[in-house]
Design a protein that fits this description.
There is one protein chain. The protein has 168 residues and is mainly alpha-helical. The chain has two domains: 1-81, Rna Polymerase Sigma Factor, Chain: A, CATH 1.10.1740.10; 85-162 and 164-168, Orthogonal Bundle (Arc Repressor Mutant, subunit A), CATH 1.10.10. It has seven helices and no strands. It has helices at residues 6-31, 34-51, 60-79, 102-110, 114-125, 130-137, 141-159. The longest helix is centred in the first third of the chain and has 26 residues, at 6-31.
């Protein structure tokens, strides 16, 4: 049975204060939607709070991140949707011009299959090792490597800048 205590609540409040920004960024990159990202973070924090007594010391962020990714996977399974091959408004030849724009990066990520997107977000945006990504997603290190390689190759081929004067 779930029991709250002042010490437990204070520990979790501190965890939330330090982890929310990172979890929010990850959720936003996974969903590309601020409202969905907020909902995912809230749901992940609720599940993490309930499990807090079982979470190993120092591993709260890893636990919450894995919950967040799993919730996002569940959301995709329920929706049965896949990203389109091309997001309206993005010209593959000119996408790199505004790559600094976070919305543009999210749109680019949205063109990838779900596993490749999750791997790239965790590996390169959250700066996790291949082993950590494998652990979070419940897949092998080899699957992380191949998903990252394929995802990056897809992004490069779809959104590589074409030098002016070429390809016209």
């Amino acid at each position: 049975m779930f029991r709250s205590s002042p010490t437990r609540d204070a520990e979790f409040a501190e965890f939330m204060r330090t982890a929310s920004l990172s979890l929010g960024r990850t959720a936003w990159l996974l969903t590309g939607n601020a409202d969905l990202a907020d909902e995912l973070v809230q749901a992940a924090l609720v599940k993490t709070y309930v499990a807090w007594p079982r979470v190993r010391s120092g591993e709260g962020l890893a636990y919450a991140r894995r919950v967040l990714v799993n919730l996002n996977v569940d959301r995709h399974r329920r929706a049965h949707t896949t990203p389109s091959d091309r997001i309206d408004g993005i010209e593959p030849r000119h996408a790199e011009q505004s790559v600094d724009d976070r919305d543009q990066a999210t749109r680019m990520l949205a063109t990838l299959p779900a596993q490749q997107r999750r791997v790239i977000v965790l590996r390169y945006y959250d700066d996790l090792s291949e082993a950590e990504v494998a652990h979070h997603l419940g897949i092998s290190v080899g699957a992380v490597k191949s998903s990252a390689s394929r995802g990056l190759a897809t992004l490069r081929s779809r959104f590589a800048r074409v030098p002016e004067g070429e390809g016209q």
